[in-house]
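Hi team,

Filling in the usual template for the complex we talked about on Friday. All components are listed, including any nucleic acid strands or ligand strings, so the model treats them as one assembly.

SUBMITTER: L.P.
PURPOSE: interface mapping
COMPONENTS: two
RESIDUES: 579
SEQUENCES:
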Amino acid sequence: MPANATASALSDPAWMRRLLIATALVFLALFLLLPLVAVFAEALRRGVSAYWAALVEEDALAAIKLTLIVAAIAVPANLVFGMAASWCVAKFDFRGKNLLITLIDLPFSVSPVISGLIYVLLFGLNGLMGPYLKSHGIQIIFAVPGLVLATIFVTFPFVARELIPLMQEQGSEEEEAALVLGASGWQTFWRVTLPNIKWGLLYGVLLCNARAMGEFGAVSVVSGHVRGYTNTMPLHVEILYNEYNFVAAFAVASVLAMLALVTLVAKTALEWRFGAELAASRHK
Amino acid sequence: MVAAASADVAFPTKGSAVTSILKKPSVLPGFGLTLGFTLSYLGILVLLPFGALIVKAGGLGWFGFWNAVLTPRVLAAFQVSFGLSLVAAAINAVFGFIVAWVLVRYQFPGKRLVDALVDLPFALPTAVAGIALSALYAPNGWVGKPLNELFGLKVAFTPLGIAIALTFVGLPFVVRTVQPILQELPPEEEEAAVSLGATRGQTFWQVVFPAVLPALVTGFALSFARGVGEYGSVIFIAGNMPGLTEILPLLIVIKLEQYDYAGAAAVGTSMLLVSFVMLLILNILQHWMRSRHAR
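RESULT (copied from the run log):
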């Protein structure tokens, strides 16, 4: 067989390459890029001053503040959980480990609405603990604690899922050496383990935060939609949109879209710069 | 286990009897503390609420449960959610594969940017995607208007609109599962096929495609599962007509708003059950394909 026939059978002909690249790019432009552009175009439809006015309006500011508060509780909580879970899963061998990993991943495979639903069924007025909570004057559903719980649930696996494979790859030799040389358990963690996992940790926190601030379905179920009190930014977008206040809805949405873009840029930068220090399963 | 963990917190240097039966010995400390914390956190935040779902749904009894689920409205929502998720997953399987192929095999300007953009649906809040798609495909939108005027095609507030929203949220799953497998495919296999006289088409369909197929099925399954549960990006574009464009998660929300907790729990439980069975079937299918390819 002549050499050029082999080469042509190993690579696609130029017309096919062009056709496939064009197909992929048109598809991505239509499905991904266009919605993103539409958010900013709709937000700026009435000019910059209308855009700005929609953002500094009282309820919008309350929504931004609440979103930041919820994320500021949920993300650190899942950060601590993720580190504890990955330490016991990656550094030790014990029975039921695979079951534990499956359970940690569980919130990812559940509809956001069901994630909210289960908390309503537990803490809501007609829920299992509803009468008890009511008699003690504790309100969880339709209040900030419910928003925090639902957000913790949907962002539960992010940090653990990033750290477990990373710590499994790294093994325990360095920690064992530190302990043999007389370091305490906490010293070993702070000075040996943490520096080794810091980029992976940041990567997990980044994704966790993006989801925490952008979650809609789960918080929608537990929120009760009280303007200025239990409305996070995504919920505020919904209310404005349903009131046909499109410019304001897209203005708040554009802030969330910018958060998504910053997350994507930071995530991509981490993958390019510290790819080797993230879990191999992530950056293949 | 939790009791053993708290014993370990008090005496971190001594492994308790329970933990040493459970785990292999190790010089590293903190097993009891971290496992205890992990299990408590998981138990309180995930398992306890799931228990509430099962208790509430179970409280209806066998007949009550099926009475709540087997109503025309719920069954129609099942059809909408599962049917359109399958459609979207199929669209994603085709185009996601092409995107992955193009990103792995070809060089073109802006490739890294395109690669990063694929993750947008993971990062963009679903409500934002929902209103953006709804604005684009509305009868007076950038895409909806030409489609309506040229082809008489209505997208927003029809099942087609739901399929488009579900395609948006599911796309990265297919690309990100197929991409690494394509990347690691040994070039020797293709070279061997070609040197044995196979054409490009034969090489693709008989060497490359079977090797990638299990990953493609995984991506399809993930995209499908995500679609069934999706809420935020769908409700704005769907129109939410009962029986026609009403998805299951929305039906759960409606039942909750009517304080029908047990009904919501029943619909939620049945939805989890059907998803579980479908994913199990896909898993078995995938296992069968893998063992066939290995031979």
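MY TAKE: Chain A has a mean pLDDT of 90. DSSP finds 14 helices and no strands in chain A.

Thanks, L.
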